[in-house]
From TrEMBL:
Gene Ontology molecular function, alphabetical: adenosine deaminase activity; metal ion binding
Record-level GO cellular component terms: cytosol
Family annotation (InterPro entries): A_deaminase_dom, Ado/ade_deaminase, Metal_Hydrolase
Annotated source species: Synechococcus elongatus (strain ATCC 33912 / PCC 7942 / FACHB-805) (Anacystis nidulans R2)
Record-given protein name: adenosine deaminase
Length: 344
């Protein structure tokens, strides 16, 4: 029985390297000509990067392969792997639908195609034999025009409950000059009844407290307990949680070792701020959710009791989990029931 939830995973980074390599082979992509062997490709795809900006460039490679024609290939394999190898019952998948439309078309034509992308992802996620609940989060983007981002907010509202929330992604340095714009869009989203999360306080370049009141969850947010712990009481009062993705901070050069997260967890637990442990880009890291748990335990960042608290919090903060309890509690309650009478 699947037991866990991942609240922060990008479609662009969800494809494991072997599956992407096979797709590139079958589609006879020119990308594959850059690598003599699969091992060279895997090294390129999963190697740590010098910065978040360099790390985000890999997303562009994957996004260029994901269209309404190819998305079922990627989504179906994602669902099977998440259910079978990660024990996931619930996965919130986030992406920017505009970036899954042909770049050769006009902006208006691409906007018109976005609903089809959302429908394609939803249909492909229904894989027989793999009962994984996978609502979508639509990502506004720092490198897209205001009109496109506004259209994605409206699309998210039109596609509830298939879409459960909006996010803002892209390089966090670009937030500064457009902060009023994103505050307006997130405020409007809340007025439309949408749930909200956003990439914020991931790096020292992404610290914008003015956007915090408009978010229900905070994508990453590790710089708050590390460098702005005075904000933690506000987070606790709002019931916000941090979506912490341990491997990401090593891959982007934000942290040099997982053990540095000990301060993040300690200060959040002390302040009453929940943390949910996520993968962010499981394929790009070639690391699945159970490995994220193990890395934190091995580095003595958290103990098993704290790990269970984080796992329980992931269902409590899930935007579209339909039950009052996580599946582990449902299973425990069922096992405690008296056995049904045997049939003669």
């Amino acid at each position: 029985m699947a037991l866990f939830a991942d609240l922060h995973r990008h479609l662009g980074g969800a494809v494991v390297p072997r599956i992407l390599w096979r797709f590139l082979q079958r589609s006879q992509s020119e990308i594959i000509d850059r690598f003599a062997h699969y091992g060279d490709f895997e090294q390129f795809y999963t190697a740590p990067k010098a910065s978040l900006a360099e790390y985000l460039e890999i997303h562009k490679l994957v996004e260029s392969t994901q269209t309404t024609g190819t998305l079922p290939y990627f989504i179906q394999r994602l669902v099977r792997g998440a259910y079978t190898f990660e024990n996931l019952a619930y996965l919130e998948l986030r992406y920017t639908p505009y970036l899954r439309t042909p770049a050769t078309l006009s902006q208006t034509e691409r906007l018109d195609l976005m609903p089809a992308v959302v429908q394609c992802v939803a249909a492909a996620s229904q894989v027989p034999g793999y009962p994984l609940l996978m609502p979508q989060i639509l990502c506004l983007h720092t490198h897209l025009p205001y009109e496109v981002n506004r259209a994605m907010v409206q699309l998210a509202a039109d596609c509830v409950p298939t879409v459960c929330a909006i996010d803002v992604a892209g390089g966090d340095r670009a937030y500064a000059e457009r902060l009023p714009e994103f505050i307006e869009l997130f405020n409007w989203a809340r007025e439309l009844g949408l749930k909200t999360t956003g990439h914020l306080f991931e790096t020292r370049d992404g610290c914008y407290p003015d956007l915090l009141p408009y978010l229900m969850r905070i994508g990453h947010g590790i710089q708050i307990p590390l460098h702005y712990p005075e904000l933690l009481p506000e987070l606790a009062a709002r019931g916000q949680c941090l979506e912490v993705c341990p491997t990401t901070y090593i891959q982007t050069g934000t942290l040099t070792e997982i053990a540095a997260l000990r301060t993040v967890f300690d200060r959040c637990f002390e302040a009453g701020v929940d943390i949910v442990i996520c993968t962010d880009n499981a394929g790009l890291h070639n690391v699945r959710l159970p490995a994220e748990y193990e890395a934190l335990l091995t580095a003595d960042v958290i103990d098993f009791q704290q790990l269970q608290a984080c796992q329980t919090a992931s269902f409590r903060h899930a935007f579209a989990w339909p039950h009052a309890q996580p599946p582990s509690q449902v299973l425990q309650d069922w096992l405690r029931q008296p056995s049904a009478p045997a049939i003669a």
